Structure prediction request, 271 residues.
Amino acid sequence: MSQILIDSVAEVMRGFTRVAVAVSGGIDSLTLATIAGRRHDSARMFHASSPAVPPEATVRVRDFAAREAWRLEIINAGEFDRDEYISNPTNRCFYCKQSLYSAIDEIAGITADQIISGTNADDLHEYRPGLDAARRRGVRHPFAELGVTKEDIRRMARSLGLGDTAEMPSSPCLSSRVETGISISPTLLRLVHAAENEVRARINAGAIRCRIRRAGVVIEVDAPTLSRLTFEQKQALTQAVSALFTTALNHPEISLAPYRVGSAFLVKQID
Prediction:
């Protein structure tokens, strides 16, 4: 079944003379890029290096590119140059993807390469403003078009021999950790990333998120792990995170909560 899906994705790509793959460093885009690199002679990969992208994602993309002999371009999408993005509105992702696809177009050529993304069928059931930016740019989503789900992608990744990548948890951009309406800055996102790494170094958890809310900083940990933490462990975690944020956020309240799957702050506005 996995090979049939891989062949189907490759068949979609064969309809494009040249392909530009937007690669974030997550399992979806890495799997799509691997298929493109192995099955399309003119595929090029584009990865945006940004304060919103965890550094390990960029390292992962570079490692894949070296191993798979990709033609890889590391680009600056320029979303942090836009007030619409850093003000962090509900549709922040629209401005991010708009900047990304514009940057790819400038390099690849609007009429020369077909931009494709790793959006899958499950994503279509969520509010994703970035899909509107993709639609306006004519970006194609082979996985979504074929009804391929996240679990299908994991199976394809295993069939492609991608190792631990097949089991990699979803990891949205760091800006997704900041409550809508709170301005985003590179400094704030570096602190978010540092806090998650600090917690990860102290406990073995399946999921960790550092959320920036108006009420303070919330460290989310998967419920089974959170339930096993002692009072002393919880106190040590909150103190360590507090030390990171004290100067930047003026002694914010630090709390722990169970991890919630999905967009914590992104809710579609109803007129």
